[in-house]
Structure formats: structure tokens, C-alpha cells
Model the fold of this input.
Amino acid sequence: MALGATGLNMPIGWHCAKDGGMNEQERAKRRTLLARHFLLRDVPEKVLDDLIGFSTIRRFGDDELIFAKGDDGDGLYGILEGQVRIFAGDAEGREITLNLLEGGDLFGEIALIDGKARSADAAAMGPTTLLHIPRRQFVPYMHANPDLCFSLLEILCARVRWTSSVIEDRAFLPLEARLAKWLVSLAESSAEKLESGALRLRLKLSQRELGALVGTSREAVNKQFATWRDAGLISMDKGTIVLNAPNDMRAIVDLA
Done:
């Protein structure tokens, strides 16, 4: 291995591709996305520019499939705008949602590392714009820089811990607590605080999608929502869920 001018190890004979005329505003937007993620936060700016030069923009409509389980793992994705749902399904059409991702999140790292097929499905939730870095360009950086590999391992460990938590919740928590935990989590990550102190979720989710998140039916979610509406804990505003009493929702989780 040779040490490149960036201070990052570069494979001998390996060269950076050009970005095809990307304007500075677009370059800055992509750099911001990559730099704020802990995987790449300590990487020299020149290296970020190299990775950005390899990247392409991919746009998806609501519920459009980004990749399916079994597809080739062609690279790493970052969310510039919109949301992404990671899920798995069976031949009978039943689905389980594994995670919801928002702007600034990276995903697709498992196939990025091992080069094998995708382990789950990914679909856009509403109009979504993604940054895509091909595996064939990213892998040489990993081989040349152990610190980058350790950062990827951190992401994988976080994914494993998250998955374990979801499995544990579905096994041991009652529906009310599982649903409250997800709503509180979504509110804490992305919600608008109203003058009343209520939290309005920015992410619009149908009852079917919430059911897939917590491992239950749309009908069960609807029944629980009706109970909470009667108690004044939640309300709906233009199709968006509002937590009228966030602390009471947290208490439901804590007492479970």
C-alpha cells in the first residue's frame, strides 16, 4: 500500500473517478451528508471529495422499491431527502418492518462489506432522494484504512443491537408498550414541538405500516389508537400523528 497525498492509504495504481460536472452546491450537499455520519466524520475532506466523485443520485417515488432481498449488494446508500423503510416479507404478502431511516442515515452496509446479496428489502416512504456510492469504489478505501473498517463494524454492531431490541420487545412487551415505544422514538428523532408541548411526527405512517413495525395487524393498531384518542394521549392532524402527552406515552413504556 502507498500513502496518498490525502494522508489516507491508497492502493498503488488506484485512481479516483471524476464526478461528471457536479456543481459546487450539489457537491457541498453530498459532503455534508457523508461528513456528519460517524462512519466518515474523521476522514480527510479530500477523501470525502473522492467518494462524492464516485457517487450518483437516485430518486424514488412513494413506496417504490430501492432494492429487494437477494439483489446484488452494489453499494452504500445515504438519504439526502425523504425516508426509507427496511423490511422483510414472505410469499403470502406478510411484512415485518425492521427499521425506519431518515435524512442523514446510511444503509446497505452489510452487502457493502461482504459483497453478498441484500439481506432485506428497502423502499421509499414518500419522494426520496438517495446518494449511492458503488461498492467497487468504496472497498479499496476499506482495505487501505483499518479505521474505516472499524467504523463500519460500529454500524453493524448498532444494527445487531437494534434488531435484538426489536425482537425482545415483540417477545415480551404488550402491544400498547411496543406501539408507544415506537411513537416516542419517532417523536424524539424527528418531530415538531407545538406550543401546547405536544409533538407532531414529521413522518406520516399508515396504521398498516405501524402494524408492520410492532408486529401486529392494522385493526389492532386502530383499536389502540381509539383508546388513546379517547384518553387524549394522541390526535391526528392532516394525516400526521400528534402526541398530546409525550410524557404519558413514555410512562407507558417505562411501566411495561
In short: The mean pLDDT is 83. The longest strand covers residues 75-89. The two ends are 54 Å apart (CA to CA).
